[in-house]
Amino acid sequence: MRKLAAGNWKMNGTEADLAEIDALMAAHPAPHCEMLICPPATLLSRMAARATSDLMVGGQDCHPKVSGAHTGDISAAMLADAGASHVILGHSERRADHGESDSLVRLKAEAVHAAGLVAIICVGETEAQRDAGQTLDVIGAQLAGSVPDGATALRTVIAYEPVWAIGTGRTPTTAEIAEVHGFLRARLAERFADASGFRLLYGGSVKPSNAAEIFAVPNVDGALVGGASLKAADFGGIVAALSAA
Ligand SMILES: O=C(CO)COP(=O)(O)O
């Protein structure tokens, strides 16, 4: 399985920031991993014009319906039309800011699959849940509720993003990441014959300085990177670590 370095630009980036993509591609013309950047929707088609077999472009969310009277929303079919191959779903910021439930995330994932795209479904516990010893229960419930029955390894990526590690500079220990990723693999195996082929990404304060250590953890097939995906030098360092893993 080729590993995946995915960047989530969140609500960051304008035309000028496309220079970072040009710098990234110049520095890493033939990486041994796949690269994906999920910019804000306003940059999607401009970034898709730079896509290659090594650099893919994705959306950060979509509406579960194909089209209709949903002001401000974007469908998976529209993201595909703009050049996206992937869509991030159920990010903890969407779950918190927009009250997204597991069942809504599941509907969105079905829409992404129907549009022929790959769904990157995010799960992760809060700090209070980890402190209460509920991490695996929370993640198991999110996985069961958010991943549709029709999911396949080709069309579905799972991202483990502990909420308390996002944008904080804090990360779980490698043993804690290994425990969750092993659990995710085992739970997927209970439902999907091709569970071993699902890519499992770790996300939350991944940087060039900690990437190699995280990528050495069993069942970590890449990263979902926020802040460090905005600068070519930082994301390039993570791509280099993943290429060497
Ligand atoms: O939320 C994330 C990616 O989706 C992680 O964000 P940071 O890499 O900035 O911690």
Count of individual beta strands: 8
Under the CATH scheme, the architecture is: Alpha-Beta Barrel
Mean pLDDT, to the nearest integer, reads: 97
Shape descriptor reads globular
Number of domains: 1
- Fraction in beta strands: 15-25%
Pattern of helices and strands:
EHEHEHEHHEHHEHEHEH
Q: How can the largest sheet be summarized?
A: 8 strands, parallel, barrel
The helix fraction, in percent, is 25-40%
Briefly note the CATH topology name: TIM Barrel
The number of helical runs is: 10
The CATH homologous superfamily name equals Aldolase class I
CATH class: Alpha Beta
Cα-based radius of gyration, to the nearest Å: 17 Å
Question: Given the helix and strand composition, which structural class is it?
Answer: alpha/beta
Q: Kindly, what is the distance between the CA atoms of the first and last residues, rounded to a whole number of angstroms?
A: 12 Å
Bound molecules: 1,3-dihydroxyacetonephosphate
Low-confidence stretches: none
Strand order within the widest beta sheet: 1-2-3-4-5-6-7-8
